[in-house]
Amino acid sequence: MSAAQRGHRVELFEAGETIGGQFTIAARIPGKEEFNETIRYYTRQLEINNVTVHLGERVTAEAILDGRASAATGDAAKFTDVVIATGVVPRIPDIPGIEHPMVMSYADAVLGHREIGKRVAVIGAGGIGFDVTEFLTVDESPTLNLKEWEQEWGVSEDLSIPGFITKPRPLPPVREVFMVQRKPGRQGKTLGKTTGWVHRATVKMKGVEQISGAVYDLIDDSGLHLTLHDKEGNETGKRVLGVDNIVVCAGQESVRDLVDPLTVAGLTTHIIGGADLASELDAKRAIRQGTEVAAALP
Question: Which whole number is the average pLDDT over 180-203?
Answer without folding.
Answer: 93
